[in-house]
Amino acid sequence: MKKELINDVTLCFTMGGRPDLLELSIDSIQGKWKFPYVIAVNDFADPACDEVFRRKFPEGILLSDGEKRGHHGAVDWVYQHIQTPYAFHTEDDWIFPKAVNFEAIKNFLEQEPKAVSYCLRYPADFLDEVALEKSSRRQKNGVSYMDLSATHEEWYSYSFNPHLIKAETLKRIGALSQYKKERHISRALKKQGGFVAYADTRLCEHIGEGMSVANPDAGRQKSALRLWLRKQFNALKRS
């Protein structure tokens, strides 16, 4: 399979504590695309993930100095090293089963100033049926996407899920560490009229569900309960 060369995009990885998932994620990317510019931050500074990244991307930039900056601070550190017009942000627990038309998405972001980013995650994988009914399917410049702005008063104007974003947008947002949580970033951008354009088809898959680094058992139990509750809710909606 011929790999697509993505010249003007920096691949940005956040990782730590899950070298097995990291390797699967990198293999998924390297099977389809070649990014000449790759930067990763390991906020957990675990040697196993450092080894995987160095082996897979020997010319990549690895940010791993043992200091814990927290998620937002770690992402800020990565973004400080971006030298290209675009960044493709992902984490160590996502794989990519389908091709992605990066050129079309870049053109879309240039033509749609209110789009903060284009997220590869399919909303049907995390929204219930009620919320999905409030979303909007749209198309611009040959790119189909879903706008979730109406589904929640705070969320869906920013996301750390795999996405393509313009470097100038990152500069406009400023340091993410000024915000306590992701929803606070989203809320600030929503007030400015911004939104995330979500893929209207499944372009990525989450392989880390229930595998929290900080508390794996609690995360697994919480995820199982959340999935069970969602199934019960959807069953009631269908009845």
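(ticket continues) Second input and output from the same batch:
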Amino acid sequence: MAVGTKHKGLTMNEDVSEKEAPAQELASDLIRLERNGEWEEIARLLEGRVLTAQEMAETAWTLYLNGAFESARHLLLPLEEKLTSPPLAFALAHLRLLEGDMSLAQRFADKDWHWDKTGTHAFAFQVALEHAFSESFLQLVERHELKTAEKLETLYSAVEPWLDGEKKPEHIRQLSETLLAARLDNEPCLLATTDKNASSECQTILERQAYRLEEIEPFLKADHKTILDIGANVGAFTFLAAQKWPDSRILAFEPGKAAFACLCFNTRKQENV
């Protein structure tokens, strides 16, 4: 007899069942069906299926990394009270946050997780940030759902201390081809970019390797100077200039729709832009 939690036709069994398909095979089917929007087929596939908690966790993780968020959430919800793996708890907090529920993200941030000494958790976080997290973050920015993107930024700041990397007061690192993590004045923040080239360019500018800012300085000594950033892309120079010269007014122009969305997000806190 199956015991445990049942969710939308899916039963969690504490005993291993040899009759069930491997987790990877189930994950592949669910990913394909979710990408095609075949929700009724997903329901039929899961109806009456029995999985162990480990199989549910493994399947959910694969689904999450491949962007099959709805199926991943269904498999993780029955495990919510049993999650001891920080990456899986992070994945569920991320998925619930996308639905507007911030409570799991706060619980994740507050919990004293047991980190192993091998660095496995940090590596799993890096993979999650590179794939599922970055993709959903950029989609939110491009849809101008900036409030939800800001909440994801808060969730990232709970993970950031556990990731490898330098802890300098000012440090920029690539999380993925579309997402930069910046630590400026010891405050972590995320910067959205459109692609690998924009991300690399953004990092170079923020690390002050692209422009000779000292040559611009003399022109800004008078009061009420205006800076025009024409072709601002995702806003790296605008972001840097707003911080370096807070008394100046910065007008940023960008015709590309996706880049403009990133520009709006990246400079949303700069009152002089």
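Agent notes: The mean pLDDT is 84. DSSP finds twelve helices and eight strands in the chain. Closing as not reproducible unless the customer responds.
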